[in-house]
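Case study.
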Amino acid sequence: MGAGHGRPGGGLTLHHAGASRVHRAPAHLKVLALLAFMLLVVAIPGDAGWAPEAYGVAAALVVATVLVARVPLLFVLRRMVVEIPFVVFALLVPFVAHGPRTTLPVLGLEVSAPGLAEAGHLLATGTIGVAAALTLAATTTARDLLAGLARLRVPALLLEIMGFMLRYAEVVTGEWSRMLVALRSRGCEPRSPRHWPALGRALGALFVRSYERGERVHLAMLSRGYVGARPAREGAP
Amino acid sequence: MHVPDGFLDAPTSIATGVVAAAGIGLALRGARRELDDRTAPMVGLVAAFVFAAQMVNFPVGAGTSGHLLGGALAAVLVGPWSAVLCLSTVLLVQALLMADGGITALGTNVTLMGIVGVGAGYLVFVAVRAVLPRRPAMVVPAAAVGAFVSVPAAAAVFTLLFAVGGQASVGIGDVAVAMLGWHTVIGLGEAAVTALVVSAVVATRPDLVHGARPLLAASTLEIRRPGAPAGAEVAG
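After joint prediction, the assembly is written out as follows.
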C-alpha cells in the first residue's frame, strides 16, 4: 500500500521514465512551451485554406517531440482514449450546425458545410492538445512539475496542496479499491443502482478516513517542526 | 466531461483563465482562514478523496456512465473555499499530468467546475438549509438540492461562454437545450450520490461536516454510572 509514498503521483500519472533531452528539459519551460504551442494551434482559423497544412505541421511537431523523447508512440496512442467523448461531440456538429447544406461523398448524408469544417477544426485542435499534453505528462515527473510550477510563480500554498494530493492520491485510491473488493466479496455490485446506498456509505467512510489521515499527517508534520510552510528539499531547485 | 483545447476561442479561454486565477487566489486566503496551517495537508487529502470519488462511475443510461463532479459534496463537507481549492487542484493535476482537459481550457474548466460548481452548489445548500428545520439530518436534503443545481449551473455558464467564444456555428438555443437537458439528468445522479455520502458522514462523524456545524448542538461531556438513574449527570 505504500507505493505512492516515495514518489508523488506514483503509478497514477502517465510518466514514462527516460533520460532523453525532453525528459531533462526544465519543467517550467515545458509547461510554457505546451501553453504557447496550444494557444497557437487554437488560434489557427479553421476556415482558412492553409489550415490543414498548419494542423499537419503542428501534429508533426508533436510526433517529432514524442520520437525525440523516446516515448513509444503506442504509449501515447493508447492513452488518447480520454478524448473519445469529445470526438463523439465533434462528429455530431456537422449534423446540428446551421449554414448551407452539403452532401457527404461517401455516405450521401446531408450535413452543414461550415459545421463540417468546424468539426475538423475541433477534432484537429482537440487531438493535438491531448497528444501534446500526454507528451508533457509522459516526460515530466510530478516532482519536476511542482518545481517547474514554483518557478512560474504559482502560489506556494497551492503547490503544497498539489504535492499532498499527488502524494496521497494513490494511497486514497488504493484504499478505495480495497473497499470495493470488500464490498464485492459481500455480494455488492457497485455498478447497479440498487447498491448505491452501500457505495455511498463506503464513499462516506473513505472521506472520514481521508480527513483523519490528513489530521494525522498534520500532527506528524507539527511534531517534526512544521511552521506553516514546507522546508525546501535538499538538492531540489 | 472536461472542456478540451480548441472548444472556445483564445480570448474567452484567457478571460476564464484570469477568472480562475482570481478565484483560486481568493480561495487560498479563505482556506487559510478556515484551516490555518492545516490547509495544505487537509485540502491535499480531501483533494485526493475527490480524485478517488471521481473515479466512481455510475450508469446514466444508453450505455454511457457519468461520474461524480464532487463540487457541492466537497463544499458541504469541508467548506466552500477549501472545496474550490480541492476541485482546482484535481483539475490542474488532471490537465498537466493526465492529459484530461486541454491546457488552454484549464481556466475554463476551473471556472466551471471549481468556481461555478462549488459556488452555486454551496449557495443553494445554504439557502435550502436555512428554510429546513434546524437539525443535522436536514443537511442531507440541502446537500442533494445543492448538488442537483450545481451541475446545470456549470452547464449554463458553459453555454454562456459558448455563446461568446464558441468555435462551432451550432445554434445557441440548441446548445442550451442539449447542455441543460443532459446536465439536469447528470445532476440527478450527482444529487443522489452526494446525499448518500453526506448522510453516511453525518451519521458517523457529524463534527466533520462543515455544512452541519451551525446545526450541531454544543454537546457536553456526560458521565453515566451503571446503576444510577437514567439521565442523572455527575458534575465535573
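Observations recorded in class. Chain A touches chain B through 89 residues (CB under 8 Å). The first helix of chain A runs from residue 3 to 6. We will return to this complex in the next lecture.
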